[in-house]
Amino acid sequence: MGAIRRRLVYALLVMTIAIIHPLFSISVNAATPAALVQQGKIAYEQGNFPTALTIWREAEVGYRQADDVLGVTGSQVNQAQALVGMGLHRRACKLLASTVGVGEDSCDGVALGKFGIRQTNLPPSLQALAVNTFGDVLRLLGNFDGARVTLMAAMEIAKPLTDRQRSPIVLNIANTLRDLGDRERNRTDKLQPPSNVSITCAIEPLANPTAGEYYQNAIACYQQANSLTADIDKFSLLVEISQWLHQHNLTPIAQKWEQQFNQTDIIDRLQTSIAKHPYNREGLSQRINFARSLGLATTPQWQVAKQLLDSVIIQARTLDRKSNLADATGTLGWLYEQNRQWDEAVKFTNQAISLESAPGNDGLYLWEWQLGRILQHQNQPEKAKAAYNRSIIALEKVRKNIRVINPDAQLLLKDDVEPLYRELVDLSLQEKQPDLAQIVDRFDGLKLVELENFLRCRASEYRAINEFAEDSGAVVFYPIILEDRLEVILRLGGNKFQRFTAPVSRTQLEATIDNFRQSLTQPQYGWDDVPASQLYDWLIRPAQQYLTPQTKNLVFVMDGALQNMPVAALYDRSRQEYLIDRYPIAMTPGLKILGAKKSMARQSGILIGGLTGKSKNDGDGNRGNIYEPLTHAQAEIKGIKSLFARSTELIGDNFTQENIQRVLATSNYSIVHLATHGRFSSDANQTFILTHDGKKIDLNGLRSILQQRQEGSIELIVLSACETATGDKRAALGLAGVAIRSGAASTLASLWAVDDGATSELMQQFYGALTGREGVSKAEALQVAQKSIRQQHEHPYYWASFVLLGNWL
User: Is the dihedral of CA 560, 566, 568, 572 positive or negative?
Assistant: First the structure.
């Protein structure tokens, strides 16, 4: 549903111009810049975004020659809208950043200050338009903090305007709050019942917000926006909330949300309102969105939805609106799919595919995916698989064209992209002789998409860090979580593959992982090995027949909730031993991203830094975390330093970003060890490490620092006191993001905050093993350290949290 909703947003931008800036409705001679504006608007309405962009650029030139600042600004806003329509969000952002007077780095996720928007002498209507459009583009890029600040500034500028003129800003605020709710829901996999407290429309940061609070704020803003579009968006949000809760077997909570609105009354009101709206670009998009929401409603209104789509198809064909025609036709196919009318579903889906085949259309992957689902229901697996593969190829083209798959970056990946890969893998595994190599390749592709959405960059920016070179002593595990089972594919030496299946549902697996994590992180309650042994039986025991004396390492490309799980603590009850007792272990987000390669020389020295007391900022106001002083960090640093002939120590007041950067710029250290607090989160903005001066080094900052090396890349970065965000089901993305952004071949870090003393001892044991004997791999050194700490502290809490990500050699 995400792509349909985005197109509606694009369509609204033209409407915003007409409301806020009356300049664009002036009737003039054909050669004037204002006439070019009108011509561009016509092209935009027809979905011809490249032509609209060209015309509006010509208009800007004309306005500049006439020294018309208002016209120049309006033309730049128009161009940004055309770029968004083409999917070129970053280019649109950089153009608007110049227009509103902020740095282009805000388009790359850098937060805007409270007063970051430049005040101008432009009329409030035009300045508010520019700032509002900029805020929405930041939202589309996933920079929600920047969008929040910008939209607050737009509301301040728009104070002299009427409620109707402010309505588009309020609508964008609602959309931003909705996206924040999506992010929080996907981070925690939770959605709370609505609060009984009256909530008003506000975009200021909330204290420890929940998904439900964000959604209630969004609903309040949709109501305040007081427009047909806002009403349709509010209805679609309520329907999506209800659907998500029912899908997760949370019917009592769903009913509480459904009590907040009378679905029949809303549908009747929207039907009456939409019937009065003209069949322009906006009106066509509104009808498509409304029809889809009707198909998802608690009591689906199939006939009403079909009538709306039929009318859109007729009008879009008459008006030559190809984009609207493709959306309406594909949605009609989807409606027939929901009703299990397969022949009609195939017919209209194929029509949508034909309409979307033209260059520049981004809906093709959605309709090919839809066709694959329908053909699967028709028991045509080969044709279904072909459609799924075409869908992924189309999706890859969208990504290569720098089109943002999803405005909220990594979040709706779970809804709009991830199921596509899983359904194809599921279908492929049902074949009599499945091509396991191809399935693994598709699964690696999903891991790549996850990271690209998280990091908001292309694979070309980091893939060259560490191309996979096969390690014949490693067995690579690919666990793939499906709704009704866990599939595990093993990559053995010689590029051979084996497969086994564990008959456990996704919900049962995730519940067992949650129990495992709870037992691991609460040593005061003792050790419960039941979930650890159950997970071992599902994930490891069937693989034992393929593990030979030549198996030197086990490497895991984890999926879903398994990513937050320490494999070292899986327990074999029959042998009464942990997995780490038998094998060195490593993890990687994917062999194509961070795989093995030849081990590098380790005698070039080490940079050691860390907090030896409290940081000036010893808490995190966003999540309410208070960080304890690292009382054993000094002993840790001293012990590690003694093992290296060359080292630089940055502790206490010297542990700052500037000093780390300076040292790396003038040295060739291959290992960086940082004993400091930090967090890995599925939200890139909440992934950081902390320095003594209280500053947070985020992913971009880390990349900037570690690229200061004189020569070569970092072989190993160790973060000995960081942790994954509490309650974040996808927090391991943050750990993978650090590994990628650092440019390091390997990253060693912890999944939870570990006892400071045990960590200090484990780290010294790790480096002792790594430097003590030639040829010891990093995975082996970690195994030695963990087994050593087990002799002192049996509970896995003290030794199992540390995971090695990337190159294990």
Answer: negative
Own/partner long-range contacts of 188-192 (Cβ < 8 Å, ≥24 apart) = 188/727, 188/728, 188/729, 189/248, 189/729, 190/727, 191/215, 191/241, 191/244, 191/245, 191/248, 191/250, 191/253, 192/253
User: The tokens 């030559």 sit on which residue?
Assistant: 320
Spatial CB neighbours of 579, under 8 Å, sequence gap ≥ 6: 536, 540, 554, 567, 568, 569, 570, 571, 572, 585
Residue 620 phi/psi, 5-degree rounding, is -125, 105
pLDDT recorded at residue 684 = 75
The answer to whether 308 and 270 have CB atoms below 8 angstroms apart is: no
Report the C-alpha gap between 355 and 202 in whole angstroms: 41
Residue 712 has pLDDT above 90, yes or no: no
The structure tokens listed for 612 are 């030896």
Q: Can you spell out the DSSP letters for 743-766?
A: --SEEEEESSPPPHHHHHHHHHHH
Task: Write down the H helix ranges in 158-280.
Answer: 163-188, 211-225, 228-247, 251-258, 263-275
| 469 vs 496: CA distance, rounded Å | 15
Beta strands in 241-374 (DSSP E): none
Contacts of 109 (CB under 8 A, 6+ apart): 141, 142, 143, 146, 456, 684, 685, 700
Coil/strand/helix, residue 224: helix
pLDDT digits (tens, 9 = 90+) for 432-473: 999 999 999 888 888 888 877 777 665 544 443 334 546 668
User: Stretch 358-376: mean pLDDT, rounded?
Assistant: 84
What are 528's two structure tokens? 């419960």
- Closest alpha carbon to 206 in 133, 255, 148: 148
Report CA Rg, the chain. 28
Burial 708-740 (b: 16+ CB within 10 A, else e): ebeeeebbbbbbbbbbbbeebbbbbbbbbbbbb
- pLDDT value at residue 714: 84
What integer pLDDT is reported at residue 631 of this predicted model? 80
Tokens, residue 428: 């492929």
Provide φ and ψ at 374, rounded to 5°: -65, -45
Distances (CA, A) of 656 to 304, 400, 691, 797: 62, 38, 5, 30
Alpha helices in 378-478 (DSSP H): 381-400, 413-416, 418-429, 436-455
Q: Tokens 């939200």 identify what position?
A: 683
Phi (first) and psi of residue 690, to 5 degrees:
-110, 135
Containing 672, the helix (H) or strand (E) segment is strand 671-680
Write out the two tokens for 456. Answer: 């908001």
Q: Please, are residues 418 and 446 in contact by the beta-carbon 8 Å criterion?
A: yes
AA identity, residue 225:
A
- The identity of residue 566, as a single letter, is P
pLDDT digits (tens, 9 = 90+) for 212-264: 999 999 999 999 999 999 999 999 999 999 999 998 889 999 999 988 788 88
Cα separation of 479 and 539, whole Å?
8
Q: What is the DSSP letter of 550?
A: T
Cα separation, 764 vs 681, whole angstroms = 27
Instruction: Answer whether 739's CB lies under 8 Å from 719's CB.
Output: no
Residue 147 host element (H or E): helix 144-157
Strand 496-502 relative to strand 486-492: parallel, antiparallel, unpaired?
antiparallel
| Strand partners for 658 | none
